[in-house]
Amino acid sequence: MSAEETGVDGPLASEMSRPGLTPLQRARAIIGGSAGNLVEWYDWFAYSSFALYFAPHFFPKGDPTAQLLQTAAIFAVGFFARPLGAWLMGLYADWKGRRAALAMSVAMMCAGAFAIAVLPDARQIGALAPLGLLAARILQGLSVGGEYGASATYMSEMAGRARRGFWASFQYVTLIAGQLLALGVLILLQNLMDKAVLEDWGWRIPFVLGGLLAVVVFWIRRGMDESPSYEAARAEGAERARTMMLFARFPRESAIIFVLTAAGSLAFYAYTTYMQKFLVNTAGFSKTAATTVTAAALVIYMLAQPLFGWISDHLGRKTTIAFAFLAGAVATYPVMSALAGTTSEGAALGLVVLLLVIMSGYTAVSGLVKAELFPAHVRALGVALPYALANALFGGTAEYVALWFKDVGNESGFYVYVSAIMAAGFLVAARLRNTNVHSLIRED
Fold first, then answer.
1. DSSP per residue over 366-435, as a string?
2. What is the pLDDT of residues 257-286, one digit of tens each?
3. pLDDT (tens digit, 9 = 90+) per residue, 375-401?
4. Residue 60 carries which DSSP code?
5. C-alpha span between 76 and 399 (Å, rounded)
6. Does residue 346 carry a pLDDT above 90?
7. Mean pLDDT, residues 322-328
8. Whole-angstrom distance, CA of residue 378 vs CA of residue 228
9. Does 329 score more than 90 pLDDT?
C-alpha cells in the first residue's frame, strides 16, 4: 500500500512499505533477542534469589529481617539506576540501532555479575563491602534499564502483525526463564553443597556463571540482524529521538506507560521475587521448600505467557491487561492472607500460581503494547524511560515496602497497597486504545 492509500507518510510509510520477514528470519530474530534477555534477567534475579545467603556477609549486624532490609535497600537502589540506563540506552537504540544497544546492555551486565562474584565481604574490607555491592548493582541497574526498552522494541518490531502478541510474549518467557534459572541454580547448589559451604562462599558461583553466559550472549548479539523498522526510519531521515520530544509530543503515551508499569511491576515483584522471602519469613516454610514452590510456580507462569500472547492476538491486548489488573486488585488481599496461614506446600503452590496466571494478562503483552504506542524513531526511548521510572518507584521498592510493613507489625497493609495500585492500572487499561488495530508498528 502506498502512503496515499494509507494516509501515512514519513517513517511510518516506510515501515509499511517494507517487505515482511520470512518465518525463519522472524524466528531467528526472536530467539536472538530472547537469549540475551534471559541472561540479563538471570543475572538480575540471582541477587534476590541468593540474598538469604549473602546478606550476612555484607551486613553482619542485626537479625535476619534487618539484614534482608539492608539487602533489599541495595536492590531498590539498583532499580533507581534503571531510569538512567533506560534514558541513555533508549536514546542509543533510537540513534545507533537496536542491535548495538542490546550488545552494550549485556556487556554491562557481565561486568556487574563478575564484580559481585569477586567482591570481598565485610570481614575483609569492612564498610567498603556494602559500597562495592551497591556499585555493582548500580551497573546492573543501568544494564537492565537499557535492556528492557531495547529488547521490547526489537522483539515487537520483528514479531509481525498477525501473531505479534504471541511472538512478543517471549520477552517475558525469557525474563521468567532467567528468574527460573537463578532459582534452579539455587536449588542445585542447595542439594549439592553443604549448607555451611553455600553460606560461606558457594553463593558466589551463580554470579560467575552469569558473567560467563553474558560473554556468550554478547558474541551472539553482535551478529544479529537489525530491525527493519529502525532501518526504515533511518533511511527516511526521521528526526532523532530527544528526551524533551518524548514528553512534549507524547505526554499521554508516557503517562499510560508509567501507570501500567507501576501496577505491573509492583505486582510482579510482590508475586515473584518477594514471594520466596514471604514464604520463609511469614508462612514459616524452610528456605528449600520456599525455593521449590517459587520455582514450580514460575514454570507454570512462564508457560502461560505465549497462551496469553495468543489470546491478545484474538481478543485484544487491552482486554488481557484490563483483566489482569482488575482480577489482581480483587485477588491480592485474600490470596496473600491465605498464603500467610498455609502450611501445605501444595496449597501454597496453587495460590501463588493463581496470582501469576492473573498477572500473565499483563506481562505477556506489556512490552509490546508500549512499543505499539510510539513511532519507530522514538520507540526505544518511549518504551524504556517511563517504564524505568515507574519500575524504580514501585517495582524496585516492593520488597522494601513489604518488609517495612512486616517490621512495623502491619503486613496486610502491603496487600492493600498492591491492590490499590493495580486498581489504578485497571482504570488506565480500561481507557487504552486497541493497539491490535491502532498500532504504530506498521510492519505486516
1. HHHHHHHTS-GGGHHHHHHHHHHHHIIIIITTHHHHHHHHHHTT-THHHHHHHHHHHHHHHHHHHT---T
2. 999 999 999 999 999 888 988 999 898 888
3. 877 888 888 888 888 988 898 789 889
4. -
5. 8
6. yes
7. 96
8. 15
9. yes
The angle at the Cα of 270, spanning 214 to 327, to the nearest 5 degrees, equals 120
Q: Side chain identity at 7, as an amino acid letter? A: G
Residue 207: pLDDT above 80? yes
Q: Are 183 and 294 in contact (CB under 8 A)?
A: yes
State which amino acid sits at residue 161. R
Contact present, 294 and 355 (Cβ < 8 Å): no
Question: Which cell is 303 given?
Answer: 508457560
CA-to-CA distance for 367 and 98, rounded, in angstroms?
A: 15
Q: Can you read off the three cell numbers belonging to residue 78?
A: 539498583
CA gap 203, 293 in Å, rounded: 20
What's the mean pLDDT in 170-176?
Answer: 85
Which residue is it, cell 519507530?
A: 376
8 Å CB contact between 226 and 98? yes
Number of other residues whose CB lies within 10 A of the CB of residue 439: 19
Q: Which pLDDT does position 443 carry in this prediction?
A: 61
Dist. CA 361–CA 319, nearest whole Å: 8
Q: Smallest Cα–Cα separation from 371: which of 234, 245, 237, 256?
A: 256
Residue 66 has pLDDT above 70, yes or no: no
How far apart CA 214 and CA 250 sit, in angstroms, is: 34
Average pLDDT over residues 199-208: 88
3-state helix, strand, coil in the chain (%, to 5): 80, 0, 20
Distances (CA, A) of 272 to 80, 294, 297, 407, 422: 19, 7, 9, 20, 16
Grid cell digits, residue 328: 489482581
SS3 63: coil
DSSP 202: G
Three cell numbers, residue 47: 541477587
The count of other CB atoms within 10 Å of the CB of residue 410 is 11
pLDDT in the model for residue 60:
66
